[in-house]
Structure formats: structure tokens, C-alpha cells
Design brief:
This protein is α+β, with helices and mostly antiparallel strands. It contains nine helices and 17 strands. The protein has a five-stranded antiparallel sheet with strand order 15-14-13-16-17, sandwiched between helices. Strands 1-6-5-4 form a four-stranded mixed sheet, covered by helices on one side. A four-stranded parallel sheet has the order 3-2-7-8, with helices on one face. Helix 2 links the parallel strand 7 and strand 8.
Length: 325
């Protein structure tokens, strides 16, 4: 089937579920044609074709029983990009070369879509993913952030530990999971004990993020879509005694509830997003027992399916509206 008008490209991977299907359904109801591109299927099952000369260029995409030219793509939802998957039967050095060439071809393909509307622009997404930059901008626009130290110096980490009376957690600067349920290889937010800070050799090999441990009344997932804000809250009292990270809590403890943010906080979030030039973002906040909201981070391609599933928020329809605007 050749799609030749009003195509919306959904960039994801083959293991994605629920969210991509809901957005595709919403787009179809609006009279446009969703085209799902599973990036992990390139180059073995996805064909990209580019023809360039002095008179112009033509890029074509074929996947499954669908094909289209990039000139028909009006917008792109950049949900997930996975590295190209090559044949495991190849020798390792050939695998690396093929993966590198495939990635270069894929990046060239994105360039052919530069006139389309993106949610969100790849360069802006990559810029916004840096968590240290996020914390700086959050503070500048009026959001409250935790005391944070990033270091590979064990002595510095010990000093920070004593400064906050031993109430610190550690986390990663980069994500290891790309789904609603996490993955088998994932480092969750964890408490730090004093004895953990005496292995200087390990810390020297990999800098770590240390933050003061914030007392929790609620944990919030705040989904921002083109000025619209959707908020889900978890009652931390139901799992905080057993884990610092709600993703490790039982399903019974993780019941998403409606929550309303103060107007000033919403305005600060909008200013934050404007600074990064992003249309979409999934924020994590803590609300303390005193009612203060603490910014933790934003994921420019973060998860929101659980909020639509459990609370009925029209997030997929709002994303679709933005893609066809």
C-alpha cells in the first residue's frame, strides 16, 4: 500500500505498545495516514532509498506492506529511536561497520524530513536530555530543585553525604530503560550509605549523580503537550517504606490519582519548555509533606501511557491534534 498524502510518521521500535497505537488511532480518526516506523527493524526489514542529484532529491521508505515518499510526510512523532539491528551471523567487525553505516543512512533520512513538523525536533530533544542542563534551567525559571552533586571524586561525595546528614540518593545521568515497565538492565534511584562512598576506584571510573533525599508525600508525573498539562500522582506513603523508586513498588501501591498543580507551577513549566523549544515533555516532581513541589527531571520522550490508561486523560488525542495542526 502506497501512502501518497497526509502521512504522519510515527518513529518508534517494535516492542512499543499502547501509546503508539492510541496515537495512530487518533490520527486515523482525523483523516490522516499514520505510518509506523520501527527503527530497530532497520536495515533488515525496513528499506530506505535516497536518490540525489543536481536537480533535487527523493527519499522513499518501505516497511511491511506500506511505502511512502518523504515529500508526503506532514509531521513526525519522534517517540523512540533505537540503534540499527544487523545480522548476528556476521563477524563482529562487519556488524559494527554495518550498524555504523545504517545509522548514518538513518540520520540522512531524518534530514529529508526537515520541512515536516516534529514532536520534537531531534536536536532540541538531544539538547534537553542533559540532566545537569535541566536542573540549571529549572532553577532559572523558578522551579525548586534538590541539592545535587555530580562527581567522580569520592572525597567530594563523602563531604556531600555529611552536608545533608546522610540523606542522599544516587541515580544515572542517562536512561537505560525505554518502556513503561523498565528493563532487566536498569539502575533505579537508590539510597546511599556511608560505606558505599569508600570505593574510590569505582567512582573514579564512572561519575555519579548524588542528590539530597527529598521527603515525599506524593510523586507526580506531569505530561506537557503543546501547552496542555496532564498530572498523575502516586501516594508515596504506600511504598516509600520499601523503595525510593515507585517503579519498584507493587502494582497495588502504584495507583495513579488525579492531581491539580498550582497556577504558578504550571507557568514555570511552560517557561521551562519554551526555553528548550519543546512541544512535549514528561516531568517528574516530588510533593513534600509541607506541600512544596520539587523538580527532579524531564524526559523529552517520556512515558505517559499509564496516565491515559488509568485516568482517562486524552493525551494521545492531544498529541494527534498537535501533529495535524
Amino acid at each position: 500500500m502506497h501512502l501518497s498524502r497526509d502521512v504522519v510518521l510515527l518513529v518508534t521500535y517494535s516492542g512499543d505498545f499502547f501509546t503508539v497505537d492510541r496515537v495512530a488511532e487518533a490520527l486515523s480518526k482525523k483523516g490522516v495516514q499514520p505510518f509506523r516506523l520501527d527503527t530497530d527493524k532497520f536495515p533488515l526489514a525496513v528499506q530506505l532509498k535516497a536518490k540525489l542529484n543536481n536537480f533535487g532529491n527523493h527519499h522513499r521508505l518501505e516497511y511491511g506492506n506500506c511505502s511512502t515518499s518523504t515529500k508526503y510526510v506532514r509531521s513526525v512523532w519522534m517517540r523512540r529511536i533505537w540503534l540499527p539491528q544487523v545480522s548476528e551471523e556476521m563477524a563482529p567487525h562487519f556488524q559494527a561497520a554495518c550498524a555504523r553505516e545504517s545509522l548514518a543512512a538513518l540520520e540522512g533520512f531524518w534530514d529529508s524530513l526537515r520541512e515536516a513538523r516534529w514532536i520534537d525536533n531531534l536536536q532540541r530533544v538531544n539538547f534537553a536530555k542533559n540532566k545537569l542542563r535541566q536542573l540549571r534551567v529549572a532553577s532559572e525559571v523558578g522551579l525548586t530543585i534538590p541539592q545535587t552533586l555530580v562527581t567522580n571524586d569520592a572525597e567530594e561525595a563523602r563531604e556531600f553525604f555529611y552536608k545533608v546528614q546522610g540523606k542522599i540518593v544516587t541515580k544515572l545521568l542517562t536512561p537505560l530503560s525505554k518502556s513503561m515497565k523498565g528493563s532487566s538492565f536498569f539502575m533505579y534511584t537508590s539510597a546511599v550509605k556511608e560505606k558505599d562512598l569508600f570505593d574510590a576506584a569505582t567512582l573514579r571510573s564512572c561519575p555519579m549523580v548524588f542528590q539530597e533525599q527529598i521527603p515525599k508525600q506524593r510523586e507526580l508525573r506531569v505530561v506537557f503537550v503543546d501547552g496542555n498539562v496532564f498530572v498523575g500522582a502516586l501516594d508515596a506513603s504506600k511504598y516509600a517504606a520499601s523503595t525510593l523508586d515507585w517503579r519498584l513498588a507493587s502494582d497495588e501501591a502504584c495507583t495513579w490519582l488525579f492531581h491539580e498543580l498550582p497556577n504558578q507551577l504550571i507557568q514555570n513549566i511552560k517557561t521551562f519548555m519554551a526555553r528548550f523549544g519543546l512541544v512535549f515533555g514528561a516531568f517528574d516532581f516530588i510533593q513534600t509533606p509541607s506541600g512544596e513541589y520539587i523538580f527532579l527531571e524531564v524526559n523529552p520522550t517520556g512515558e505517559w501511557g499509564m496516565l491515559e490508561r488509568d485516568l482517562g486523560y486524552p493525551i494521545s488525542n492531544t498529541i494527534a491534534d498537535t501533529l495535524v495542526a
